[in-house]
Amino acid sequence: MNAPLLSGSMAGNTRSIGDILVATGRLDSEGLARILERQRQQKQAFGEAAIALNLLTKEDIDLALSKQFDYAYLIEGQSDVSPQLVAAYKPFSRVGENLRAVRSQLMLRWYNNDTGHKAMAVVSAGKGDGRSFVAANLAIVFAQQGQRTLLIDGDMRAPAERSQHALFKLEKGPGLSGILSGRCGLEVAQVVPGLPGLTVLPAGAQPPNPQELLGRAVFSQLLFAAAEQFDVILIDTPSGSDYSDGEIIAARAGAAVMVARRNASLVPHIRKLGQRLQDGGVALVGSLLNDV
Prior knowledge:
Layout: H1 17-23, H2 29-42, H3 46-52, H4 58-68, H5 86-89, H6 94-109, E1 119-123, H7 131-144, E2 149-153, H8 164-168, H9 176-180, E3 190-191, E4 198-201, H10 210-214, H11 217-229, E5 232-236, H12 245-253, E6 255-261, H13 267-279, E7 283-290
Parallel strand pairs: 1-5, 1-6, 2-4, 2-5, 6-7
Antiparallel strand pairs: 3-4
Helix pairs in contact: 1-4, 2-3, 6-7
């Protein structure tokens, strides 16, 4: 999404764009003076004048605007989280805009202030469809909107390098498997630095019996407790064609969004999973085509 090139102060932050950029080291006082002089002479917006003088980039202006509007995002090279978290690093890109469009649809169709509509599973039929990518980035855009967001990694089968733990570079410790086995509680979920409002519960140690753990009453109790603390709960899941974990998770959550990958996902498998979910009483809120 293209952010407007504005100047002056805005509600929520009285600092000007120039002040913010000087404070972050992206502009010096001499450059600020040159921009303000051109702005006065040419009657241009601050950002337009700065870019015309080759003193700042569009990314610099976006950063300043995000700080004025308290819109959190990360700077490449200044955070350890994975570059796959596009919504965190490049929120104004085409991918970021598409994610916000999906967020809007999910808000209309499920997250509609109904206390029973807090949780949603992110499912797909095949491996490599991008469930973890979609779940992580959707969680980020919900948090950027000001929603108290919990991302649960419900894929207790994935290797560590393909987990939400790896994407967000979380600290080692117990996670979902630890909670479901009764060894800890929701306090083990971790707040993501630099992204206020976003909390991630990693999968934890790989258990030998993930389906049995998910089938226990403690999982429903976990979702109930989380719903009292968070506005949005998104749950990553394993491949639906390989395991039934995602169906169990979706049934407990009450809703699911289906992810498919362009030129990779098989339509018969998607239809079969969708039918199984609906037969189980799950609200299939929508679908998302990855790699468009």
